[in-house]
Specification:
It comes from Amycolatopsis vancoresmycina DSM 44592. Helices cover about 40% and strands about 20% of the residues. With about 300 residues, the protein is of the alpha/beta class. It has 2 domains: about 160 residues, Rossmann fold (3-Layer(aba) Sandwich), CATH 3.40.50.720; about 80 residues, UDP-galactose 4-epimerase, domain 1. The chain is globular and about 55 Å long. The relative contact order is 0.14.
């Protein structure tokens, strides 16, 4: 199958492209820079130069492919409205390009804010609709294309998709710990983050492309929830730093923009996904990766 992948040179996207190619699929990846294009070509993928603002290029890439996996996001946490608008525009453009084709359209999403007080399951619908909602309501927008002859699938990723050279949330927390000289956690540290190794996430995406029915919500979750105190303790051991609770009124000052996320309970299950796809996570745990030096300085 010829698959068009946005975010193809990113952390998750790179792993997904490798997984797809190894399984015998053809890949065209969207690349913003010459360096990203070179990395994709070295893997054996084709390249379409462009970014999330190049809607004409995204439309053409989707129209030429047999399936689309949309993983790109601006992740502008200082100006979320910009990220939300770009995300919604890209999803609308891809869905329109696939209208009536029956082709798979897999869209990256997350678990934050879907439910409170318990782990999120695949049966839980996202409450976010409309352009002003998180991610521009892109999950629900994509799933609505099932009524227009498209085969949409939601890919809900854990808040941490970890592994060697990960530059996401855990890398940010490790950097803050080194800068502050203390590995902190919010409050009592009992709130949890779901986690998955990047190799397991990539395999789930590939299986979702091959097996998931239209309208499915898939959870890239290996660990239901790692307490934030345990995450901070693992970072402390990795960098020989003291570990301390950060009071609620100091979380934003200590952690900056990521404080709002680190203080959330982001637990989720993947029982339904595992049963549907025959997917069993097999990679290292988050704490194992931290202990193994995945977030060491200079890596």
């Amino acid at each position: 199958m010829h698959v068009f992948v946005t975010g193809a040179s990113g952390w998750i996207g790179s792993a997904v492209v490798g997984e797809l190619l190894e399984a015998g699929h053809e890949v065209t990846g969207l690349a913003r820079s010459a360096a990203s294009a070179e990395r994709l070509e070295a893997k054996g993928a084709r390249v379409r130069r462009g970014d999330l603002d190049d809607l004409d290029g995204i439309r053409a890439g989707a129209a030429e492919a047999e399936a689309v996996i949309h993983l790109a996001n601006k992740h502008d946490f200082a100006n979320p409205a910009v990220s939300n608008a770009a995300e919604r525009g890209a999803v609308q453009t891809i869905g329109d390009a696939l209208d009536g084709s029956g082709r798979p359209f897999l869209v990256a999403s997350g678990i934050a804010g879907i439910v409170r007080g318990r782990p999120v399951t695949e049966a839980d619908a996202s409450p976010f609709h409309g352009p002003d909602s998180p991610r521009g309501g892109s999950e629900n927008l994509a799933l609505e294309f099932a009524g227009r002859g498209v085969h949409p699938v939601s890919l809900r990723f854990s808040p941490t998709v970890h592994g060697h050279r990960d530059h996401g949330f855990i890398a940010v927390l490790a950097g803050i710990a080194r800068q502050k000289g203390v590995s902190g956690y919010p409050g009592d540290g009992a709130n949890r983050w779901a986690a998955v190794h990047v190799s397991d996430a990539a395999r789930m995406v590939r299986l979702g492309l091959e097996k998931a029915p239209a309208g499915a919500r898939l959870h890239a979750v290996a660990e239901e929830g790692v307490p934030t105190r345990e995450i901070a303790e693992a970072i402390g051991r990795a960098f020989d730093l003291p570990v301390a609770s950060i009071p609620a009124d100091a979380v934003q000052d200590h952690f900056g923009w990521i404080g709002a996320f680190f203080g959330m309970d982001l637990a989720a299950t993947s029982t339904g996904t595992q049963e549907l796809l025959g997917w069993t996570p097999a990679g290292p745990t988050l704490l194992e990766d931290i202990a193994a030096g995945a977030y060491s300085a200079g890596e």
